[in-house]
Design brief:
The two termini are about 20 Å apart. The protein is globular. It is an alpha/beta fold and about 230 residues long. Helix content is about 35%, strand content about 20%. The chain has one domain: Rossmann fold (3-Layer(aba) Sandwich).
């Protein structure tokens, strides 16, 4: 069953919507699905529905709600892609992390699910890293996260497991940035990095031109095993 739920901000001064997909039975755990720059669109909702089918309660918060509530954009349509980039430029990432933390608390306190993980894509991958460093999420996964090298100073605060999937031919995260991620994180006891040579940004999207079936299947299988281990 899927529905839209309302979540209170950490300071209690506002509310934002989140897509909520519930499993058929008691949830194994909860997973917060962090959007790309395209909002909580059909692809993100499908990610939630897949997690629910695997027994998780999935929540996808609308992180652009302060800019434009209910954004749903298609990355394969150029004008919508450009609109997404503009929204990204105005987005307050620190505030976004706070809204994700509020979603984690909502899962635990309001929905009664004590174990909560996060998984994010693109912008969401970067936010998943920040969430791992700044919150008590039980496990975090980031796909083709952007801008991690300038956040490596926060790595000391990562206390729970984090997995990052790197697209080897990512045109938003170049080879130098990926090398910096490996240099900064390979020896971190809580962090695991996986490389996907030749794959570009967005390879695990649910549909569209960016999807790469084999790489998506491999990355998603690793994510599933990671959550099965750390959200017990």
């Amino acid at each position: 069953m899927s529905e839209t739920v309302s979540i209170s901000t950490l300071d209690g001064d506002g509310h934002f919507a989140a897509w909520c997909a519930r499993p058929a039975g008691p949830p194994r755990a909860a997973i917060v699905v962090i959007q790309e720059i395209f909002g909580v669109n059909a692809a993100i909702r499908r990610k939630c529905d897949r997690l629910a089918a695997d027994g998780y309660l999935a929540l996808a918060p609308d992180l652009f709600w302060r800019l434009e509530p209910g954004v749903e954009l298609d990355p394969d349509i150029e004008v919508e892609f450009q609109r997404a980039l503009a929204l990204m430029g105005r987005f307050d990432q620190d505030q976004g992390v706070a809204d994700i933390e509020a979603t984690i608390r909502h899962a635990r306190r309001e929905l009664g699910v004590p174990k909560v993980g996060v998984v994010g894509y693109c912008l969401g991958g970067r936010l998943a890293y920040m969430v791992a460093a700044r919150t008590d999420a039980d496990a975090s996964v980031g796909y083709y996260a952007v801008g991690i090298p300038d956040r490596l100073r926060e790595k000391h605060a990562i206390a729970n497991p984090l997995m990052l999937h790197l697209a080897g031919a990512d045109h938003f995260v170049d080879a130098e940035a990926q090398a910096a991620m490996h240099a900064g994180l390979d020896d971190h006891p809580k962090v695991t990095l996986h490389d996907y040579p030749g794959e570009d940004h967005g390879f695990a999207i649910e549909s569209g031109r960016r999807r790469s079936e084999a790489a998506a299947a491999l990355a998603d299988s690793r994510t599933a095993a990671f959550f099965a281990e750390h959200l017990r």
